[in-house]
Amino acid sequence: MRCTIIGLGEAGRIYASALQGRGHDVLGYDVAPIPTPNLRRAASMAEAVGQADAVIVMTTARASLPVARDAAPHLGPGTLYADFTSAAPSAKVALTEVLPAGVLTADIAILGPVISLGASTPLMAAGPGAERVAELLRPVGAPVEVVHGELGDAMAHKLLRSIVMKGFAAVICEAVEAGRRAGYEDWVRGQFAAVLSGDGQSTFDRFITGSAKHAAR
Known about the structure:
The chain is α/β, with parallel strands linked by helices. Helix content is about 45%, strand content about 15%. The protein has two domains: about 150 residues, NAD(P)-binding Rossmann-like Domain (Rossmann fold, 3-Layer(aba) Sandwich); about 55 residues, no CATH class.
C-alpha cells in the first residue's frame, strides 16, 4: 500500500519505519527540515498525497485543519485519511467539511507514549475509515480499538481518559513531593503502590462511593 506520513516528528518517524517494515511504500512530508535518512520525502502536498492509498497525519493539533485543507484538492476517492493529532473532537468533526466526498476519514486517538511503546502503542479509531486503519496498523503490532461512532468520538474518549491519567499523575507528584519534604517519601510511595496493585475496578468503585459517603469530612 502507498502510505504517506504527514508530520515527521518522533511519532511520525516511528510509524513510517513500522509500515516500511511490513513492505508498504511509505512517503514522508513535513515543511520542517527534519532529517529522515531512511524515508523518501515529498517536496509538496500534491506530491505527498496525490497517489497515496492512505494518508496519516501526525502533526500538532493546531495544524490538523490547515493540513486537511492543503491536502483536500489532491485526495482521490477511496483514500484513507487518518488524523492522529490531538485536536479537539470538534476539529475532527470539521474534517468532514474540509475533505472531499469519497475520502475515508478516521479520527485516531493515541492512548500511550509512542516514544517508549513505538508502533505497539494502543490506538482508538472512529469514523468511516476506522476499520481501514485497524487493518493497516494491527499487522505492525498496534492494538487498535474501533469505536463504532462518528469523527471526534475517539478523541472524546481520550480526553476523558486524560482526566484520570493526568489528574492521577498530578496527585501522585504532589503527594510524593510532600512526603519527601516531611521525610516520609518511601511510606507515601508504598501507599500508592498498594492501591495501584489491587483490583482496579474495586478501587475505582471505592473511590466513587467512598468520596460521596465521606464528603462531609
